Every structure is written in C-alpha cells, then in structure tokens.
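User: Last request for today: this protein with glutathione, please.
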Amino acid sequence: MNRILYYHQQSNFSRKIRILLAEKNLDCELKEINLLNKPPEFLEISPIGRVPVFVEQDGTVIWDSTLIAEYLDETYPQPSFYPSNVRTRLDCRKWEELADNLGDNIINLWVLNLKNNFTSNRYRTKLETSINRLATVFERQLAESKYLLGNDTWTAADVAALCSFGYYSFRLNEDWLLEFPNVENWFNQLHQRESVKSTVPIPLN
Ligand SMILES: N[C@@H](CCC(=O)N[C@@H](CS)C(=O)NCC(=O)O)C(=O)O
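Assistant: Here's the final one, the structure of the complex with glutathione:
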C-alpha cells in the first residue's frame, strides 16, 4: 500500500511533515481532511481527531507531528533532521516543543478572535504574552547562530519553528517579522527551499 498523510494545507503541524517528506524524497499520498466535517475513515485511525496522521506502507498508523517526524527520521535517516548526539538531540526536541507550543498559542488566539469574544480579554492577553515571550526566545537564539542548533544545518526544530511563524503570518500578524529581525532573516533564508516554499498556507476560496 501507499504511504498516506492525512493533513490540512493550512495546518502548521501537517506542514512539518510535508516538509520532511519532501526533503527525504519519500512518495506519499496526501489526503486533505475537512476539519469541520471529519470523515469516519479519518476518525477511525485518529483518536484525537487532529491532523497530521501518517500511515506507513505496512499499515502502521502514527499521529502527532513530532512522533511522525521522529519515526521518519529514524526509518529514513537521509537527510537527518535530529542530531545523533544525545545532548544535542535533547536540545533539538526542546526547541521543537517550544515551536509547537508557539503554534498552539497562535491557533488558540486565532480561534478566540474568530469567536470575537470580548469577555475573554484575560485569556487573549495571556496568549499574546506567551507568543511574544516565545518569539523573543527564538530571536535571541537566532542572534547566536544561523539555525536554532548551530551554523551547520537545519533540524526538526527549525522546521517546526518556521511552520509556527509561518502560521503566525498567515493568521494573525504579517508584521511580526519587523519586530524580530534575526527570526526574519532565518525565516526568509529557509523559504528559499522548495519544500518550504511549496507548503506555505493559502486562504480557502
Ligand atoms: N500535537 C499535535 C497537534 C495537532 C493539531 O493541533 N492539529 C490541528 C490543525 S493544525 C487540528 O487538527 N485541529 C482540528 C481539531 O482540533 O479539531 C501535533 O503535533 O500533531
């Protein structure tokens, strides 16, 4: 059977996996899911009902972008997106977790804005504060090196972070780049890659 990725083209977490599949040159059938009306076929294999979900050729089902990313890297290690050294790998996982946390905060703020719920000002402030604090942490790290883990190569942490910052541009604030020049420079450089360019989220018709 073919590999399958259940995804949504606007989903930052799905984008992590689309970039890794492209970089690793792995054939994979892409099945886009309507997140407002999830098909039974999808819900049967996704206990949390979220994209991405990956199905391997032997039928193995993996959900959660980080679990999928680690599986792909261990099974298809060329090119590798997680460092082999235990300590550096831990750092990579920590940055990936921060990036995913940034993504979660951005999604929650966007959903809150959609509801236009003025009674939730405290929650809105909490989300905005978290987003700014995390973006500042990335800004400081990228003042030190070209990528999140040094100057040599991008890792799964950079992939996760560019997907969250890309989602920030898409949903909330095109101008964030102006406030974080090191992130801007890193973000624009990574967008020279075809895997990154070809997965930029686009508005629905
Ligand atoms: N921790 C999960 C988060 C996945 C997630 O939040 N996916 C969103 C799209 S970006 C989703 O499917 N939302 C639909 C829903 O919650 O109903 C991962 O890394 O894969």
